[in-house]
Amino acid sequence: NYAARYDTLKGKLSPGEGRYDLHSNLVSSLNTNSTADDVIKAIKRAQNLHDVHDMKAIEHFLLERAPPNFAYGYMGSLLSRMAVAALHMEEQYTATKLLDVRKAKFMSNIRPMESSAIIRGLLRVHNVTDAFDVLNTELAL
Question: 7, 19, 52, 109: which could form a disulfide with 12 (CB 3.0–4.6 Å)?
């Protein structure tokens, strides 16, 4: 019935039910007006509640929809934080994708405390090979 699905088709859903909306009341969606602080709040909430939908939405924003100048100087840290949260939820594919982008684009902005959290997360999910790869790559810096 078209009348029953009108709001869905027009995108007039309640917060958290759209394709890229978040379930959070504090940060309902990530867009070009969002700040790095909004992303951190969304990541922390998704990690604490093990909200896979929000993690996917945040990943999509960071990797595909964020403007090139978004969180200038902090994008590597956001990707690191997101990777640690993904590893906490045992989303290894997501974490690997985020770490690959971080390594390719933001290698010069790597901070040791982020690396240690990533290594701990990789070891926690028994991914020793990638943990040693991160360690060896960053020791070379």
Answer: 7
